[in-house]
Structure prediction request, 530 residues.
Amino acid sequence: MRILRRFFFQIIIILAFLFNGKKAFSQCDFTTPSFVVDLSLQPDSVWIETNTARLDSCCFKQDPQDDCIMFVVTLAPSIGALYFSVESPQPSISASQFHINCDSTEFSVQDTVCIEGFTPPYTITYCKPGNDKPDYIIAGIGAGEISPPIVVSDACTDTITATGFVESTLVWNSVYPGSYGAYNYFLSDSLAEDTVIVTPTGNYPDSVQYEVCGDLSGFSCSSGAINKCDSTWVYFVSSFFVNISPQNPSICAAGDSVTLTANASGGALPYTYLWSTGDTTQSIIVISGNSGDYWVQVKDTLECAGVFDTVTVVEFIVPISVNAGSDDTICTDNPFVNLNGSVTGVSTGTWSGGNGTFSPSADSLITTYTPDSAELATGTFTLILTTTNTGSCPADSDSIVVTVVVAPSADAGPDQNGCFGPLGVQLNGIVSNTSGGVWTTLGSGTFSPDSATLNASYLPSATDISAGTVTLILTATGSIVCSPVTDTAVMTILPAPAVNAGVSISVCATNPNVTLNGSVTIVPGATWTS
Prediction:
């Protein structure tokens, strides 16, 4: 029971009178002491006014010597009756009457008056001769009341309760938002229950206002039971979750530790924490040698069942490291990189950094990489090996640089044929993307000045000449990573022509004509000259 005391005199100000005239204060003179009594939010409260003398007139003033006082009372919607009393000093009850809203009905002080039929606010006027300053006591009687607002999570339920009503007459309804009764399906029951369970389902608003109506318990007026209503709010909060971070907690080396933190969301703050270790803080520290499973339970102020999360802490005894191997050089005629990486502390890693393909996969420590055309054209690229499955510990990485060498080429020149005299066959070999070349023969001749001279001469042997043809091979040399490249030229050796002018003869000056009898082989003819 609350008691509200007013120790000062509240007079309706003259300015209000000037604007509203007698219409606003037709129940009393504007000089009559007047008080506003607001019990709309405090149905169980008592209002007391002290040390105020009555003055001038109000409606139904019986005696010219009477002085009056007025109270404008606002009650909670669930109030069924109004109580008014005068005490200290207490007047003769039978001779002390008051009126409500200037109705002609007289009520004795200390009467409990059913307010049914009166329009709020309820204006009490009380007149009595004398200049005493008693206590004036006003209270609402017969209040039905609903429990205060509650907060409910969609993972929980809660109850709202109505008191001061006849249970069998109770009717529950949602009044906002939506149409009347739109959210009654959140309630366990809507009829003849003084306690209902609220269970949010589906899509729910931020809040719902619920109203309960019923007959006031233990109280009735001459017309019978008094039916009143009261309302409260139910506020809804989002689902309640918790996650432990980091997600894959790890102790990275002997002597290290890892911090586990419970990150809760939703529900209603503040949160409380309970770890499997017995700690009640939001975070705990797990030190080396204590790997294993850890759980946390978090509760909010809704007192629902808590939410849980569990993680497994792993410990790396050996420091995490990786070795991608040595830098490598490849040739465009065989563009494959054979990778042979290794890791410690963990057993897995993954390759990255290239635009080509890994076979069998980038997650194999030992794998083959095939670069794409752009990497081959650039001439160099980098491949990176990074450890995986390191939990919350930092990964280690290592890289290799791959250099691309363009494959060499060789051109032995065109095939040739001829008699090839004592100077042999003149060669003109060409090589590219390499430092040099070397000639070889499938015959038995020799190269002059040597076989490493690209424009050397080839001197066929008698066997070569007898065979009639010989194949010469030019091989590009000087590349370590590229495969040998060769080209061939075929030399066709024609036999040398023979000529025979015959035997020498003598002639007489008187007869200068000489008969010649020459012969040739291989060629179709010959020419005599002198």
Summary: The chain has five domains: 2-141, 145-237, 241-315, 321-405, 409-493.
